[in-house]
């Protein structure tokens, strides 16, 4: 894991424990993630992050809305996967970014406790995952 992912990791834990972001954390997250962090906060402000959890397993995936006016939505795992183009292009292929804005938005909303929680059965969750 790179130094900046470790710093980010520590930051998410702090935010999780206080359920808020202070100026210093904002500055650091912005420093690590740049413009993507701004975009992620815009998504979180619009309550654009849903956490879909399967019952009874409790396994979950995030559904994050796109930033643009077109009402697209992306499925993502905060740590390691997103269905958007930027994830494949900037994160996987070119390795230029740690994660995409949807993953960031998911992480931020989860840490702040502001996800829209959606419960489905494990069967429904499996069906969703099979379409990724
Ligand atoms: Zn994405």
Low-confidence stretches: none
Mean pLDDT: 93
Report the end-to-end length measured between terminal Cα atoms.
Answer: 26 Å
Q: What are the secondary-structure elements, in order, as H or E?
A: HHHEEEEHHEH
- Provide the helix percentage: 40-55%
Shape: globular
DSSP strand tally: 5
Number of helices: 6
Q: What count of structural domains?
A: 1
Hetero groups in this structure are: zinc ion
Q: What is the SS-derived class?
A: alpha+beta
The description of the largest β-sheet is: 5 strands, mixed
CA radius of gyration is 14 Å
Percent in strands: 15-25%
User: Order of strands across the biggest sheet?
Assistant: 4-3-2-1-5
Brief descriptors of the model:
132 residues; alpha+beta; single chain; five-stranded mixed sheet; binds zinc ion; 52% helix; globular
What does this structure look like?
There is one protein chain. The protein contains six helices and five strands. Helix content is 52%, strand content 20%. It has one domain. The radius of gyration is 14 Å and the shape is globular. Helix 2 packs across helix 3. By secondary structure, the protein is an alpha+beta fold. A five-stranded mixed sheet has the order 4-3-2-1-5. The site of zinc ion has 9 residues, from strand 3, helix 4 and helix 5.
